[in-house]
Amino acid sequence: MASEIKIDEEGRPRFPPAKNVPISHRAEMRKVLIPPHRLTPLKGSWSKIYPPLVENLKLQVRMNLKGKAVELRSSKLTTDSGALQKGEDFVKAFSLGFDVDDAIALLRLEDLYIETFEIKDVKNLGGEHLGRAIGRIAGKDGRTKFAIENSSKTRIVLADQNIHILGSFQNIRLAREAVVSLILGAPPGKVYGNLRTIASRMKERF
């Protein structure tokens, strides 16, 4: 027979203290597919990729070469509710072509994002014209891309027709405008000049 519920002076039911029963953990899982050309770099960089996922985010992680994926799972040690999403963003950044040291910034800083767009989103180019546009963005020995990255405090990956930009919202916009100008045929010198002017204005403002 159930024990009688006790009522306090104000008419509210009084319950005995709850027993210290561990809360059952429901593991969640995410799978990040790795493009074939990033599998070898993944194996080579694995010793730098898994420690922040396991030690900082307290996730369980597995490199599944057969499935061409990295599998992430929360555990009873995971305390951050956003850990799985952060881990997925980090691995995805690496899969897109960013260096581990750049991708790891997504775990450390809150306001970083990745924006992806295609050259054809800006201008429908084909054949030699497309190759020339990619060449203009990269520049000789990658100097143009490097100059845009330094001025806008972003990281850029050129992957065929896809352009991936990692940075804060404002800095991504700055880098994207420079890349779009180059796709449309603007001379690199003019693009540098505009970029430096805007970057210095932003520095003064903050």
Structure summarized in a few sentences:
This protein is an alpha+beta fold and 206 residues long. 48% of the residues lie in helices and 18% in strands.
Structure write-up:
With 206 residues, the protein is α+β, with helices and mostly antiparallel strands. The protein contains nine helices and eight strands. It has helices spanning 39-56, 83-96, 100-103, 105-108, 119-122, 127-138, 143-152, 169-183, 188-205, and strands at 6-7, 13-14, 29-33, 59-64, 69-74, 113-118, 155-159, 162-167. Strand 7 (155-159) and strand 8 form a beta hairpin. Helix 1 (39-56) packs antiparallel against helix 2, helix 7 packs antiparallel against helix 8 (169-183) and helix 8 (169-183) runs antiparallel to helix 9 (188-205). Residues 20-24 have low confidence and may be disordered.
Structural class by helix and strand composition: alpha+beta
Helicity level: 40-55%
Q: Poorly predicted ranges (pLDDT <50, ≥5 residues)?
A: 20-24
> What is the averaged pLDDT score?
86
Helix tally? 9
What strand line-up does the widest sheet have?
A: 3-5-4
Shape: elongated
Largest sheet: 3 strands, antiparallel
**Beta-strand fraction estimate:** 15-25%
The ordered H/E elements are EEEHEEHHHEHHHEEHH
Tell me the Rg in angstroms.
25 Å
Distance between the termini: 70 Å
Number of strands: 8
